[in-house]
Write a structure and sequence with these properties.
Layout: H1 2-6, E1 13-14, E2 23-24, H2 46-53, H3 57-72, E3 80-81, H4 92-109, E4 112-113
Parallel strand pairs: 3-4
Antiparallel strand pairs: 1-2
Helix pairs in contact: 3-4
């Protein structure tokens, strides 16, 4: 999973995975009126389809797409995201697939996965 997440890094990311917080050094000189926008979402009913098909890497891509869409509609640049996976039974291989999809979504969106 760490290799997937490393693909998402940006120069502004400070530190690595495993800390208590994801750190991002924001260069406010790049913006006329610097504001931070935040969004959170879930994959909704697409999760049932992923489970039925036993394909889990695509739901992460979709999740990041939905979060990024919510940000850019406000005129915000997606800088970084944090993921949270809740499940009743941990299956490491499936979690790795989900994280790989989240990382791929971040790469496509140009944002870092910081935690």
């Amino acid at each position: 999973m760490k290799a997937s997440v490393r693909r998402t890094t940006r120069p502004e990311v400070i530190g690595g995975l495993g800390g208590f917080a994801g750190l991002f050094a924001l260069d406010t000189s790049r913006y006329r009126q610097p504001l931070l926008a935040s969004s959170t979402d879930g994959v909704g009913t697409k999760l049932a389809i992923a489970q039925a098909m036993d394909v889990h890497d695509t739901i992460g891509i979709d999740l990041i797409g939905m979060v990024v869409d919510d940000l850019v509609v406000c005129g915000a640049e997606p800088l970084f995201v944090q993921d949270y996976i809740a499940c009743g039974r941990l299956v490491p291989e499936k979690i790795a697939e989900i994280v790989a999809g989240v990382a791929e979504g971040c790469v496509r969106a140009g944002c870092a996965l910081v935690g």
